[in-house]
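Query structure, 217 tokens:
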């Protein structure tokens, strides 16, 4: 279970404080896959980072009793001066994962070849995404979080990503933020709308979409 209690998030602006999330209280239960619709700039990525634990709220509490992935494909946290293999070992130590098992899986899945031993700062964005997605799939999580997109790379690699993610999804839940109702329908069982810093959940995806379209019109 993931529980948000009175979560608020703001950032300092040049002339004023920018309020992103305002008093969000929401429980995400195991066995449910949740989609959150919102316009660009609504705070969807910020909310996802707070849910996953990579960012703290200014006020309020985020409680987690499940293992949660980082946003799939997110590669900004890699240490650029370290090689792909060294980054993998570092993440394995944090999550208590088997280094050899994870390294073998990612090396095979990412298809990076000898580049996995080169500094990540020399990687293209596509190579970083391959490394990040492979690592996300190598470590088994109870909840996978998705920020807009699922897979990067060419068509063949994307199909590979979708196939393995379907396997992982059989025993895990999904929390996805997006402005695409098609993505929400594909992966989620219920949905909500983030608007004006507040999250409203609905009983059905159709109801969430209707309210989202009303909010953006």
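Result returned for the query:
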């Amino acid at each position: 279970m993931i529980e948000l209690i009175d979560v608020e998030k703001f950032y300092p602006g040049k002339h004023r404080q920018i309020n992103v999330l305002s008093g969000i209280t929401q429980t995400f239960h195991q066995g449910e896959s949740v989609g959150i619709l919102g316009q660009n700039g609504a705070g969807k990525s910020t909310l996802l980072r707070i849910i996953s634990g990579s960012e703290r709220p200014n006020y309020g509490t985020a409680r987690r009793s499940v293992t949660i992935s980082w946003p799939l494909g997110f590669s900004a946290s890699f240490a650029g001066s370290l090689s792909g293999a060294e980054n993998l070992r570092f993440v394995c130590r944090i999550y208590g994962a088997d280094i050899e098992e994870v390294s073998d899986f990612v090396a095979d899945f990412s298809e990076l070849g000898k580049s996995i031993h080169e500094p990540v700062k020399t990687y293209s964005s596509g190579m970083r995404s391959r490394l990040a997605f492979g690592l996300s799939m190598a470590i088994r999580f109870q909840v996978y979080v998705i920020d807009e997109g699922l897979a990067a790379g060419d068509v063949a690699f994307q199909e590979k990503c979708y196939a393995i993610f379907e396997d992982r999804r059989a025993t895990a839940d999904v929390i996805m933020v997006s402005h695409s109702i098609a993505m929400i329908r594909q992966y989620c069982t219920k949905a909500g709308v983030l608007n004006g810093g507040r999250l409203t959940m609905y009983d059905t995806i159709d109801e969430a979409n209707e309210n989202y379209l009303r909010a953006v019109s």
